[in-house]
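Structural prep section.
Before we set up the soaks we want a predicted structure of the protein with heme C in place, mainly to decide which crystallisation condition to try first. Input record follows.
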Amino acid sequence: MKKSTSVFLAAVVALGMLSTTASADIKKGQKGYLKKCKKCHGNGTKGSAMKTQAEWEELFANDGKNIIAKHNGTKAEKYFNSKSFKKKAVHIKDFLYQYGSDSGNVPSCG
Ligand code: HEC
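Run finished without errors. Recording the tokens verbatim:
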């Protein structure tokens, strides 16, 4: 393969990956929400509508400091202070933000 062709192909692949990650993260976050938050906060529609987009931004800022603080002293404390939450937090935030109460969006399945 000529070098210019492979560079072009690499760029196409990279672009394709960029555009799919955005929505994949929301799906991932929705999955994470359903697995970890639903039992206490209800389905994804209800959960994401707990807060506005700005409030979700705020809760998940600084590695989720505020949302972790909200759960200290609850049964979810251990989960919020775990590595598993750290890893999923960005995706869960993407999901909640996407469907925040002032977003005008509603998840198709909760
Ligand atoms: C074991 C149950 C439990 C789990 C699991 C849980 N929460 Fe909570 N959450 C609570 C309790 C209890 C509170 C504090 C009381 C309240 O405001 O409802 C709370 C508070 C909150 C608040 C603040 C509500 C407010 O009024 O300010 C948000 C936002 C929130 N949780 C989101 C989440 C998200 C997102 C997840 C999943 C990553 C999650 N919670 C998982 C029990 C839980």
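Observations: The pocket of heme C is lined by residues 36-37, 39-41, 50-51, 59, 67, 70-71, 74-76, 92 (CB under 6 Å).
Flagged for discussion at group meeting.
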